[in-house]
Amino acid sequence: MKIIPILALLALPCVSTQAADQTARPNVLFLVSDDLRPELGCYGNTVIKSPNIDALAKQGITFNRAYCQQAVCSPSRSSVMTGARPDTTQVLNLTTHFREAMPDVITLPQHFKNSGYITKQFGKIYHGDLQDPPSWTPKKEDASIRGLFDSRTFTVADEKNAEFKLTKTNRGGAFRKTDDPPNGGGEGKLADQAIAALHELKKESKPFFLAIGFHKPHLPFNVPKFYWNLYDPEKIPMAPNQFLPKDAPPFALVEKPEMWNYSGVPDTADLPEDYKRDLKHGYYAAVSYMDAQLGRVVDELDSLGLRDNTIIILWGDHGWKLGEHSRWAKHSNVEDDTRSPLIVSVPGMTHKDAKTDALVEFVDIYPTLAELAGLSLPDHLEGSSLKPLIEEPELEWKEAAFSQYPRTYQKKRMMGYTMRTDRYRFTRWVKKEDHSEVVALELYDHQKDPQENINIANNPEHKTLIEKLTKQSLAGWKGAMKH
Questions:
Q1: Which residues of the chain are modeled with pLDDT < 50?
Q2: 342-345 and 61-67: which strand pairing?
Q3: pLDDT of residue 171
Q4: Total domains in the fold of the chain
C-alpha cells in the first residue's frame, strides 16, 4: 500500500485531525448539472426550491462570479476536464473531441486515476458520444444512463398558440408534467446508480473520484408533477429585460436556438406570454427535481460515513437565458450564459457557508481539485487553483474571467472573445481565421447596467476605456492574475 506523504495531506485547507483519516487522500464527489444557471436559493433566489444545494453551500463556499469558457455543453465540459481553454482544446462545437488537438492530455479524472484513485462516471460528464475511456477506471458492471431520459414523442394540444406555426420534430415537446414518482424518471435512476456506486466504493481500499452528471435542468423539462406542484406559476418572476440589448451587433444573440428543435414551440422568437411562463415554470421544476436527486446522493455519502473525507464540488456547465434579451437557451457571450454556479465543500474547511465575489473560471476546477487532494499540477493547465480563495474568501484575485463563442453571420466566420472584469463585460468579435479584422465590439457597464441592456462600445467618450480593455483582453488569462 502506498504511503502518502504528510505534506500531501497538508494541501487540504485547514483540515482538522478529526476530519479525516490522515493516511489517505480525500475522495472527490464531482457533481455537474446541465444548463444550470445561478437560479438557486444560495444565490439569492427566494422563489426556487433548491434545499439540498443550499445545504451543500452551507457546508462549503459559493463562488458568486464563476464563468465557463464557452456557453455550450461540449466546449465547456472539455475545458473543465482538460484544464485548458477552447482555443487550446479546439472544441468549439458538439462534435469535435479534445483528443484530436490534445491526444496525450491527462484529463482531470485521469490524473486522479494515475494517482491511485478509482474513477467512475454516471450520467453526462463528457458530451454525447464524445466519451473518454482513459479518464475512468476500467469497469464492467456500470450501466450507462444514456437512454433513461424520456424523449418520447407526444401530441401537443395547445389552442392558445394555434395562431403560430409550430415546429415539428420527433424529440417531443419542450416541457411536460410526468406521472413518475418524485424519485423516479431519469434523474432518479441516475441517483440510484450513484448511491449503489457509493456502497461499492466504500468497500475499496483506494480513494475514489465519483463523477455524477445530472441531465436536468436541460431540455426537455419533462419532470414529475410533484415538482411542478411546488410552484405557483404566477409567483415565478419573469425576465425583467425582455428586449434585445440596445446597439448590440445583430449576431450577438441567436434568434431561435436548440429549444426550437422540440415540437410545439411557437415558431417565433417572440414567444407568447403564457408559453414563456410555462417554460420558466418547467425550468424551476427541473431544478428542484435535480436538486432532490443530488440530495439523495449527498445524504447517502453522509450515512455511509464518507463525507468527512470527501471533497464535494457542484458546477453547472454554463448558464441559460430564461427570456432575458427576448431569448432562450445559451449559445452567447452574455452574463446569463457564461455565468453558472460553482460550490465547493472541503473536509475541515475553516470558512463554511462562505461566499466570494472573486472572478473565477471553470478552467480553475482541475488545478483546484488536484491541489486539494495533494496531487501535482500538470504543466498544461490554463487555470489557477482556487485553494487560496477557499482558505481566504476575501482574497484579492483575478482581474478578469475569459469566455468565447464562435459565430457565422452572413457567411463571415467570427470568434467573439469576451472578458468579464469587476465592472465591465467587454467582447471583441474578430475574424475567426487569423483575428486580422475586428468586426464589432460590445461593452456593458455592470455598475450602471447589470443586465447588459445597452452596448456602449461605440460611444466616443469611452475611447480610452476601449483601448485599455482591448490591451487587457489581448493580454489574456495569463495577465489577469493579481497574486
A1: 1-23, 141-163
A2: antiparallel
A3: 83
A4: 2
Is the bond preceding 220 in cis, omega lying within 30 degrees of 0?
A: yes
Q: Cα separation of 386 and 372, whole Å? A: 9
Nearest to 178 by CA among 121, 222, 133, 130: 222
Decide: 288 and 230 in contact? Cβ < 8 Å. Answer: yes
From 28, 42, 33, select the one nearest 317 (Cα to Cα).
33
The verdict on residue 321 lying in a domain is: yes
Q: Are residues 97 and 208 in the same domain?
A: yes
Q: What is the pLDDT of residue 480?
A: 79
How far are the Cα atoms of 120, 121, 138, 144, 406 from residue 141, in angstroms, in the given order? 11, 12, 10, 10, 39
Taking the CB of residue 327, how many other CB atoms lie within 10 A of it? Answer: 26
Q: Say whether 276 sits in a helix, a strand or coil.
A: helix
| Closest to 67 measured CA to CA, from 386, 397, 366, 315 | 315
| pTM (2 d.p.) | 0.90
Question: Which residues are identified as catalytic?
Answer: 73, 127
With a CB cutoff of 8 Å and minimum separation 6, the contacts of 383 are 83, 361, 362, 363, 364, 365, 366, 367, 477
Q: What is the pLDDT of residues 20-52, one digit of tens each?
A: 343 489 999 999 999 999 999 999 999 999 999
- For residues 312 and 410, state if they share a domain: no
Identify whether the C-beta of residue 216 lies closer than 8 Å to the C-beta of residue 224.
no
Query: Domain check: are 82 and 100 in the same one?
Result: yes
What string of H, E and C letters represents the secondary structure of 48-109?
A: CCCHHHHHHHHCCEEEEEEECCCCCHHHHHHHHHHCCCHHHHCCCCCCCCHHHCCCCCCCHH
Tell me whether residue 1 is in a domain: no
Domain of residue 436: give its range.
Answer: 402-479
What does the pLDDT read at residue 187? 98
Residues 342 and 81 sit within 8 Å (Cβ to Cβ): no
Task: State whether 35 and 145 are in the same domain.
Answer: yes
| CA-closest candidate to residue 220, choices 283, 281, 274, 269 | 283
Q: Which residue has the cell 438557486?
A: 40
Q: Find, among 132, 144, 225, the residue nearest to 184 by Cα.
A: 225
* Same domain, yes or no: 374 and 437: no
| Angstrom distance (rounded) from CA 283 to CA 223 | 9
Long-range contacts of the stretch 92-95 (C-beta < 8 A, 24+): 92/406, 93/406, 94/127, 94/128, 94/130, 95/130
Place of cell 456557453: 71
